[in-house]
């Protein structure tokens, strides 16, 4: 893979992480004023993760303009690893159950589909 392509993938992951931080900060502000249940919080975290992957993957695949599905899988996997590392550093435990596995599979599928979408979007 060319260095330019790797740079676009890194920029896509960086954009996805920044998008996640912004969305979670907005959710934290909402949570200070309104009591939100655990199910709603879990859904917000999942939606934020998936939207971040879509954003980063569409950006990168539009720039590279080929093999969007592969770019999407790479970005989804690397993004997921980064988020889990950040989660571990912040003090959360890494319990790996069926729900985590399903989230990872969903992230990969969404990354793959959004990569294909990004390649086919016109400027």
From TrEMBL:
This is TIGR04086 family membrane protein. It holds the Pfam family DUF3792. The keyword Isomerase does not apply. NCBIfam families: TIGR04086_membr. InterPro entries: DUF3792_TM (IPR023804). Keywords: Membrane, Transmembrane, Transmembrane helix. The lineage of its organism: Bacteria, Bacillati, Bacillota, Clostridia, Eubacteriales. The chain crosses the membrane at residues 12-31, 43-61, 68-89, 101-121. It comes from the Bacteria.
């Amino acid at each position: 893979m060319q260095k330019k392509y790797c740079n676009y993938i890194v920029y896509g992951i960086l954009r996805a992480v920044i998008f996640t931080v912004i969305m979670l900060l907005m959710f934290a502000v909402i949570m200070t004023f309104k009591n939100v249940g655990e199910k709603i919080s879990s859904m917000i975290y999942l939606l934020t993760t998936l939207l971040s992957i879509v954003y980063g993957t569409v950006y990168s695949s539009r720039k590279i303009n080929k093999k969007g599905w592969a770019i999407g899988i790479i970005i989804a996997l690397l993004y997921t690893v980064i988020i889990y590392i950040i989660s571990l550093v912040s003090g959360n435990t890494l319990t790996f159950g069926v729900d985590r596995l399903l989230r990872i599979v969903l992230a990969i599928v969404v990354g793959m589909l959004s990569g294909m979408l990004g390649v086919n979007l016109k400027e």
